């Protein structure tokens, strides 16, 4: 072996030794690329430790402070009505109570009197009614029968003005008498209902089928009959209704 061959072998052994040292240093300190890089994927240093790079900001990981304000749901809307908005809800007025009014004439001896009340009004789809209550204070015997009768004819002369169509002494024809109500005297009350009317001309009341020119009340005890006129029309020749 000559000198040149010996020197070449020594150079190769030195190069191999330097390469091994470089590998050991690289394993201990990391590669030069990892030392000069500030961003990028994480670099493994060893089996028990990892250096993680900062993750990139994505929409899903954006801070909550940068998100748009959510629209309030219907349940979160303010429940109070602004003070400058007028309340247009209709107020429910109480239904007026009908007021009874006197009907016809009274009688001091028996305390006879009648009151009438209108139930319903003319704006409804049905016709209102007149409810009539007749009361008396005497007689009170259950043997006395009280009858309320309507007279369908004016018995006064037609050519005389201002005469009552029916009086307590008028001789009545049976076919002109219509029974309206009846009760025992001990009840001290009788009631009946008429359909309400507006303008019916000379008659003073109507039950629908009949127009009445007089309303009488009779107290009958055995053969004794007492007749009282509750209301009557009067003659008026030439009057227009």
Annotation keywords:
single chain; 241 residues; alpha+beta; Immunoglobulin-like; four-stranded antiparallel β-sheet
Structural description of this entry:
- The protein has helices spanning 3-29, 32-36, and strands at 43-46, 49-51, 101-107, 112-119, 129-135, 145-151, 177-184, 189-195, 205-206, 211-212, 214-221, 224-232.
- The protein is of the alpha+beta class and 241 residues long.
- The strands form four sheets. The chain has a four-stranded antiparallel sheet with strand order 3-4-5-8, with no helix packed on it.
- The radius of gyration is 58 Å and the shape is globular.
Over the alpha carbons, how many angstroms does the gyration radius reach? 58 Å
* Strand proportion: 25-35%
Determine the structural class based on helices, strands and strand pairing.
Answer: alpha+beta
**Can you list the strand order of the major beta sheet?**
3-4-5-8
Largest sheet data = 4 strands, antiparallel
N-to-C terminal Cα separation, in Å? 164 Å
Alpha plus pi helix count: 2
CATH architecture of the domain at 101-232: Sandwich
For this entry, what is the oligomeric state of its chains? single chain
Write the CATH fold name of the domain at 101-232: Immunoglobulin-like
How many β-strand stretches? 12
Shape: globular
| Overall pLDDT confidence | 77
Query: What order do the helices and strands follow?
Result: HHEEEEEEEEEEEE
CATH level 1 name of the domain at 101-232: Mainly Beta
Helix-residue proportion: 10-25%
Summarize the structure.
By secondary structure, the chain is α+β, with helices and mostly antiparallel strands.
């Amino acid at each position: 072996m000559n000198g040149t061959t010996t020197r070449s072998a020594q150079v190769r052994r030195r190069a191999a030794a330097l390469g091994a040292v470089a590998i050991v240093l690289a394993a201990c300190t990391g590669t030069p690329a990892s030392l000069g890089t500030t961003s990028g994927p994480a670099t493994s240093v060893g089996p028990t430790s990892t250096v993680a790079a900062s993750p990139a900001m994505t929409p899903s990981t954006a801070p909550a402070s940068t998100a748009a304000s959510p629209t309030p749901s219907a349940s979160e809307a303010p429940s109070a009505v602004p003070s400058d908005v007028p309340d247009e809800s209709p107020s429910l007025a109480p239904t007026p109570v009908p007021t009874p009014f006197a009907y016809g004439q009274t009688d001091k001896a028996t305390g006879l009197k009648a009151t009438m009340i209108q139930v319903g009004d003319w704006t409804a789809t049905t016709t209102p009614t007149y409810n009539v209550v007749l009361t008396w204070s005497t007689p009170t015997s259950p043997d006395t029968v009280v009858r309320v009768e309507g007279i369908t004819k004016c018995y006064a002369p037609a050519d005389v003005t201002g005469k009552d169509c029916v009086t307590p002494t008028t001789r009545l024809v049976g076919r002109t008498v219509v029974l309206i109500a009846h009760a025992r005297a001990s009840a001290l009350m009788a009631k009946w209902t008429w359909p309400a009317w507006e303008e019916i001309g000379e008659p003073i009341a109507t039950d629908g089928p009949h127009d009445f020119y007089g309303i009488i009340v009779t107290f009958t005890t055995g053969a004794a009959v007492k007749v009282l006129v509750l209301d009557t029309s009067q003659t008026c020749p030439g009057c227009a209704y």
